[in-house]
Amino acid sequence: MSTIIKQNKTLADGLSGEQLFSAQIGLTYRDFLVLPGFIDFNPSEVYLETKVSKNITIKRPLISSPMDTVTESAMAIALALQGGLGIIHYNNTLEEQVKFVRKVKRFENGFITDPIILSPNNSIEDLDDIKEKFGFSGIPITEDGTFNSKLIGIVTNRDIDFEKDRTQKLGKLMTSNLITAEVGISLNEANNILRVKKVGKLPIVDVSGRLVALVSRSDLKKNKEFPDASKDLNKRLLVGAAVSTLPESRERVSELYDAGVDLIIIDSAQGNSSYQIDMIKYIKKNFKNLDVVAGNVVTKEQSRSLIEAGADGLRVGMGPGSICITQETMAVGRAQATAVFMTSHYASQFDVPVIADGGISNIGDIANALAIGASTCMMGSMFAGTNEAPGEYFYENGIRLKKYRGMASLEAMKAGGDKRYFSESQKIKVAQGVSGAVVDKGSVQNLVPYLVQGLRQSFQDMGYKSIPDLHKGLREENLRFERRTESAQAQGSVHGLYSYTSPTMRVE
Length: 508
Fold this sequence. Notes:
Layout: H1 2-10, H2 17-20, E1 32-34, E2 50-51, E3 57-58, E4 62-64, H3 73-81, E5 85-88, H4 94-107, E6 111-112, H5 124-134, E7 139-142, E8 151-155, H6 157-160, E9 181-182, H7 187-197, E10 201-205, E11 211-216, H8 222-225, E12 240-243, H9 248-259, E13 263-266, H10 274-286, E14 291-297, H11 300-309, E15 313-316, H12 326-330, H13 336-347, E16 354-357, H14 363-371, E17 376-379, E18 393-396, E19 399-405, H15 410-414, E20 435-439, H16 444-462, H17 467-475, E21 481-483, H18 486-491
Parallel strand pairs: 4-5, 4-17, 5-12, 9-10, 12-13, 13-14, 14-15, 15-16, 16-17
Antiparallel strand pairs: 1-21, 2-3, 6-11, 7-8, 10-11, 18-19, 19-20
Helix pairs in contact: 3-4, 4-9, 11-13, 14-16
């Protein structure tokens, strides 16, 4: 047996993680490959459960960035249902951020408390727009299109599917003979009415007949459709929220805590500061069972400062994002793969998980980040452009797009994004990000399963069934890597063709 082990060691190709990153040069995810391992399992056997922080575990290593063109309640709900986690941005008022968190926490309760409402004077075209933007068309109709007036009908696909004239008013087409329930009804009772009456939507009204909430038949299927959903002990969806290090954020944390937030991310471009350390200590002292992810960091020394202050997780990345120009503008930062390896190698000694934030544009980047020590990946551009991302679609040169901007772009800073850059009192603002647009990617509900299946196949090629096993292979130097030159990178991508069709991230 010892002879076999010795022989196997002499056959070990490539480099260990330590050897790969020992060179004093920064590496990105594209600068290396993981060498293949032994396959004795199917992709379906790969288990992607992982830790976001010391006390929070999710089924998928996917987190959305707290950016105002990426994560509000719709994104957080969709990701949590798929086993990931959404982090609500704070480029808004305290009341708005708390409202988004509450929407996520009460979503799984089954009562939709802020449904879209139309009036009888709206047209089928208005309903078509809502269906395109939000993916549903069962819309309550009140006398004036607000919660303040009486519910008079509901319009579903059955009412409008075969109508050629889309300018017709909904008042002529709506179903007015409604089955409703009074406010105070339990979810089980509401679901029973949906079953017995065989209706898709059940409006909940007050004594004056005004709409209070809506229960959808599709909610009955949630537990079956989303068995890997990220939930707390009370079976509510998990959600995180970002705050700055400014004194005003202490009130935010308190309100978010009362709203049920599960995780706070302290959002700073450079996290190794006395301001952040003070914020970590304040949160850990005053809010029981509330985990804190600190950052952003890229070095072991930065990591040490925040872990000693009480951080439950680290967010790693300074300048690698597709809309970030910090490295170019400030000449400060670190190549992302090197940053992830160095920080996670140090943090693992304290069982502090690392979130790889930025520099991810495909499945391979996610796999590489996990292979070098990250527990999860935070993405902005990957989720920007989806149906669930904030903002409206628009067309440019015939391409359907959505706005995507860095939180350090001049546009975002004017709206409050400069709170993470210690420049809130400066009249002259130096941008560390840009504004742009990304192509429509469809729904997160389709995108995430696509990413997950790709990750499972990548893990199979590497020869590991889970993220903890992958990290164990990294530590024990059984997981092997190889640097690759620019020509090797070119050869590893599409080349030598007259033309080709590039695969799209939009999944139908």
